[in-house]
Amino acid sequence: MTSLLVLLVVVLLGVAVWQLTKIFDLTQIGANASDDSGIANDKDNNINGYLMFAFLVFIYITTIYCCVKFGDLPLMDNSASEHGPDVDRLMWISMILIFFVQTITQALLHYFAFKYRGKQGKKALYFADNDKLEFVWTIIPVIVLAGLILYGLYAWTNIMFVDEKEGDPIFVELYAKQFSWEARYAGEDNMLGKANVRYIEGVNTLGVDMSDPNAQDDKVVQELHIPVGRKVIFKMRSQDVLHSAYMPHFRAQMNCVPGMVTQFAFTPTMTTDEMRQTPEMVEKVARINKIRAKKSAALVAEGKTALEPYNFDYLLLCNKICGASHYNMQMKIVVVSEADYKKWLNEKGTLSKAIKEANAPAEAPAATEATSAPVADTVKAIAQLVK
Amino acid sequence: MSAVGHDLSHDHGHDHEHHHKDTFITKYIFSIDHKMIAKQYLITGLLMGIIGVGMSLLFRMQIAWPEESFGIFKFFLGEKMAPGGVMKNDAYLALVTIHGTIMVFFVLTAGLSGTFSNLLIPLQIGARDMASGFMNMISYWLFFISTIIMLCSLFVESGPASAGWTIYPPLSALPQAIPGSGTGMTLWLISMAIFIASSLMGSLNYVVTVINLRTKGMSMTRLPLTIWTFFVTAIIGIVSFPVLLSAALLLIFDRSFGTSFFMSDIYIAGEVLHYQGGSPVLFEHLFWFLGHPEVYIVILPAMGIVSEILTTNSRKPIFGYRAMIASVLAIAFLSTIVWGHHMFISGMNPFLGSVFTFTTLLIAIPSAVKAFNWITTLWKGNLQMNPGMLFSIGMVSTFITGGLTGIILGDSTLDINVHDTYFVIAHFHLVMGISALYGFFAGVYHWFPKMFGRMMDKNLGYIHFWVTAVCAYGVFFPMHFIGMAGLPRRYYTNTAFPLFDDLADVNVLITVFALVGAAFQVVFFWNFFYSIFYGKKATQNPWRSNTLEWTTPVEHMHGNWPGEIPHVHRWAYDYSKPGHDEDFVPQIVPYKDGEEQLHH
């Protein structure tokens, strides 16, 4: 199918070009026996004027085709977080506005190009200024943008300024490293223990400071489970380079920056199972599985193993270039009921237990202070040099 | 002010009686003539463009047909980056990085601005040459050296820089994180430092020339819009490029001398590194303080070129000349206070996000004014559909399509979900990549007769435009949709996520359009190089234009005008003015008695 499509496009383009050349050649007949002046004559103006109009039609058709064919791809109306609908509504408003302005301005531009195509002896209108017009198309964007800015800032403030005391949030640390994610749950006390990469040792892969009382009941897992309807505050860290925790279905994204803790919070509104049963998702999964089945058939024919059928899961993707395997840095997110969440979390052992079992009690390396001092000196020395 | 310019330009005038003979080297290589330097920039920019676009085709093929073996990969990338003809994942990132670097800096900054600022500033303001021809020459040769170093970095053992064109540390600082951050990154930084020096020399020259060397009568409000945009672009460059230089230098310190400006608490390859106290977010601030103005450095000259060509070929004055200048100034000012919209989710204080959303969306206002003024310029015109005109109309079209999605990306709330997805790629490629390229092509077609004294073939120009226009939409329009579907950029393949399986067809479609579109650029290159030698000889003013460059002889000469420098009596846009027989009135024509005077 794909290769057929490709072939078709190539052939059609080839034909289009051949036709174009023909048309341009034909325009020369009768004008001057051989017009090689390089300057457009009336026939060129005519042809290109009509082509401008055709191009307007092309833009519209492309737009409609893309909306119909790919319109169900976007994540614009099946958000799974409490703030999601706010984002989606703003997205829709902006999109409708964009399509409206795009349709009108492209129409004017290309229609004028068609309508006023040049003709020998015609004289253009000497029209250099009109303050009223300038005022109109300054003030209209001002008003429209004022609305968009206000709505955007309102939504942004609600999403980003997180009150940690409000409600009963869960604290989860998202820990990024080349090329995988880990998560740390705060445990019974709902307080994450301190951490620094300098504490990394053996099974303590996140560098949790085990001398911190808050750290004793922390749990480290490789799959994120969160309860529906409860606010989750993510504290994000990175071990090596910049990463970005992108959870598109929740309209959530925040960079993970080595040396600092960033945060993002949202309240999931739909469990994984509920999401799987929405009509859009059923349709999407069916479509994807059809594609995969076809690919599998081809693979089996080559004697390779078939692809697994796809079932929907929320995902955490890395969305900041982080190295060679950036394209495959993901973690599954499972949204479940509060009860299931508690059950799942209780089954997980604490980090301190894991460390004891590994028989390697983490000792806080006292090196932090010692190593940083000479570095700070170097910085100072170089800063002085620069001065 | 213009009187001063007049005096200076006379002091600067050459004495043609004692003209010394040019050797091949002084004429074609170490030339200090602005027209030759413009041509050098043009040719270098075009060659870099071939490399930059070629790279994009390679990685587009990898996205469309992931991990398949291609002979062409083997040929271009070699056994090390593409064993058995299958592109490796770090080779993919290297290509993405160098494609971005080459296109943004070498093609659309140096290639576009360097060519047309050099060619047009002295010719359109009525000067014999740049304020400092020598510095101009140095500027070009530094640029040339920086391109050579960048190209050399492709061949080092550990591969070229691969951390994205934004080179965010720590990825760009640690060879343990990605091999390209070794020697390849060092060369990238050196190349960029030299490039910045070149750019600054060029910009200073442009600013000084425009301020001091205008001919008699050429007041600032009579300058063609091309000159206004080149002038403002140069100022933005002077303000912002040094900040990138400082970021690059600090990064060199971090990489080579053990400082911690941009890094802290890093554990990689089984060991804790010594870095303590720095922040990658600081680098992002420094980078985007240049990075965002940079996109205006790229697009403003294209806007100026398009304004000039639209007007000439519409046979109508530009609509709202003063509003156009005001909007350029407004864009320039705003461009320096919006960099944070690249960093909404970088971990900086969300309050800053609010501020940057506000300033960013404001840019839509002057941009809208420009777009409406261009459209009104066409209204009731007598449009001469020369190839340059087609590309100018095309530029307005892609600028609108690409610019509109800016109100989504500039809105911090919406940016959360589309940040770093293909939506961003679609947006900036249309609004600055394709638009600036169209401006570039428009300029080449329009001023080719001025540069080479010959005409390009118009029919080949038409084919070039129409196929490019269709393919550009075909490539970048569908990208909005896969971006809104959440597909992250800079993924070597999307096969790791079954979630994205239904985007595979779209990606094939995009790649096919890209391949066809790129293949048709051969038409342009053929037309360009053939016409340099065999094109029809140009007349002095083939487009019947008002500006001063068309009053110089077709054959190039040092000093531009054989006699005295012409005086200017009117603004540049008296097209189809009532009371004149011709539909254009060059700037050198004095006002008749009682004639209406616009813009003194």
TrEMBL record, chain A:
Transmembrane segment boundaries: 47-68, 89-114, 134-156
EC numbers for this chain: 7.1.1.9
Localization (cell): Cell membrane; Membrane
Cytochrome oxidase subunit II transmembrane region profile domain segment(s): 67-163
Enzyme class: translocase
BP terms from Gene Ontology: ATP synthesis coupled electron transport
Pfam families reported for this sequence: COX2, COX2_TM
UniProt cross-references to InterPro entries, sorted A to Z: CcO_II, CcO_II-like_C, Cupredoxin, Cyt_c_oxidase_su2_TM_dom, Cyt_c_oxidase_su2_TM_sf
Keyword entries, A-Z: Copper, Electron transport, Membrane, Metal-binding, Respiratory chain, Translocase, Transmembrane, Transmembrane helix, Transport
GO CC field: plasma membrane
MF terms in GO: copper ion binding; cytochrome-c oxidase activity
Cofactor descriptive note: Binds a copper A center.
Catalytic activity: 4 Fe(II)-[cytochrome c] + O2 + 8 H(+)(in) = 4 Fe(III)-[cytochrome c] + 2 H2O + 4 H(+)(out)
Membrane topology: Multi-pass membrane protein
Domain Cytochrome oxidase subunit II copper A binding: 167-347
Cofactor names: Cu cation
PANTHER family attached to this UniProt entry: CYTOCHROME C OXIDASE SUBUNIT 2, CYTOCHROME C OXIDASE, SUBUNIT II
Family indicated by similarity: Belongs to the cytochrome c oxidase subunit 2 family.
Role: Subunits I and II form the functional core of the enzyme complex. Electrons originating in cytochrome c are transferred via heme a and Cu(A) to the binuclear center formed by heme a3 and Cu(B).
Protein name: Cytochrome c oxidase subunit 2
Species whose genome carries this gene: Flavobacterium suncheonense GH29-5 = DSM 17707
Organism classification: Bacteria, Pseudomonadati, Bacteroidota, Flavobacteriia, Flavobacteriales
TrEMBL record, chain B:
Domain of life: Bacteria
Cellular component annotations (GO), alphabetically ordered: membrane
Compartment(s): Membrane
Gene Ontology MF annotations: cytochrome-c oxidase activity; heme binding
Gene3D superfamilies the UniProt entry points to: Cytochrome c oxidase-like, subunit I domain (1.20.210.10)
Keywords, ordered alphabetically: Electron transport, Heme, Iron, Membrane, Metal-binding, Respiratory chain, Transmembrane, Transmembrane helix, Transport
Main subcellular location of this protein, as a coarse class: membrane
Domain Cytochrome oxidase subunit I profile: 24-589
GO biological process terms on file: aerobic respiration; electron transport coupled proton transport; respiratory electron transport chain
Residue spans crossing the bilayer: 41-59, 91-121, 133-156, 187-213, 225-253, 286-307, 319-339, 351-369, 390-410, 422-448, 460-486, 506-529
Membrane topology type: Multi-pass membrane protein
InterPro entries per record: Cyt_c_oxase-like_su1_dom, Cyt_c_oxase-like_su1_sf, Cyt_C_Oxase_1, Cyt_c_Oxase_su1_BS
Pfam families, A to Z: COX1 (PF00115)
PANTHER family, alphabetized: CYTOCHROME C OXIDASE SUBUNIT 1 (PTHR10422:SF18)
Family: Belongs to the heme-copper respiratory oxidase family.
Protein name: Cytochrome C oxidase
